[in-house]
Amino acid sequence: MIRSIVRNKTVLAILSIVMGIYMCVAGRNVLYSIIRVAGYGLIGAAIIYLVLYLTGQNGRDQVKMGYAIVSGIAGLLIVRLAPAIVNLFPILAGVGLILAGIGNLTQAAGSGMPMVSKVGPIVTLVLGLLILTHPGTVVNMVVTLAGIALILNGLSELEMIRRVW
Predict the structure, then answer these.
(1) Can you give the pTM of this predicted structure?
(2) Closest to 32 in 3D by CA, of 77, 85, 71
(3) Given this model, what pLDDT does residue 59 score?
(4) What is the pLDDT of residue 104?
């Protein structure tokens, strides 16, 4: 039993390292792949709902047909628009950070709190502006940092397995 657990943890650690390397090399293309996989998952769900509708033993449930149509259309749109979806994320994040920074800054200014309390909202505002002005760079940086985190996680798991085993 312990050998099985160690083997499974080793495989997961190696997969984490491989995925981290792939993320560092591929950059934002990883996000395209992840979004497309989600889209294909929705298309698969549409097929399953359609089969359940067609083979319904208790009659044909219209809800299953509705699920099939909605998930099929959503899946096709997601697969087709994956690059646009990836490009939309940093824009939404930048706008959200700017709005949060402005809101927090006005709150801190109106409360009569010391200048130190305004640093966080100002940093949030600047970060939002940076994301809006350089969305591609930010996406690549985030994916690369996530890849590095996966590599480090996998290496630490392997080291822990080596020490325990």
Answers:
(1) 0.65
(2) 85
(3) 61
(4) 86
The domains of the chain are located at 2-164
Residue type, 2: I
Judge whether 125 and 98 are in contact, CB under 8 Å: yes
Asked if 79 and 40 count as a contact pair (C-beta separation under 8 A), the reply is yes
Of 147, 163, 138, 111, nearest in space to 34 by CA: 147
Cα–Cα distance measured from residue 15 to residue 137, given in angstroms and rounded to the nearest whole number: 26
Residue type, 114: P
For residue 147, give the nearest of 24, 28, 12, 14 by alpha carbon. Answer: 24
Q: For the CA atoms of the chain, what is the radius of gyration?
A: 23
DSSP conformational letter for 116: G
Contact criterion met (CB below 8 Å) for 35 and 78: yes
Residue 28 DSSP code: T
- Mean pLDDT, residues 143-156: 93
The tens digit of pLDDT for each residue in 43-56 reads 999 999 888 888 87
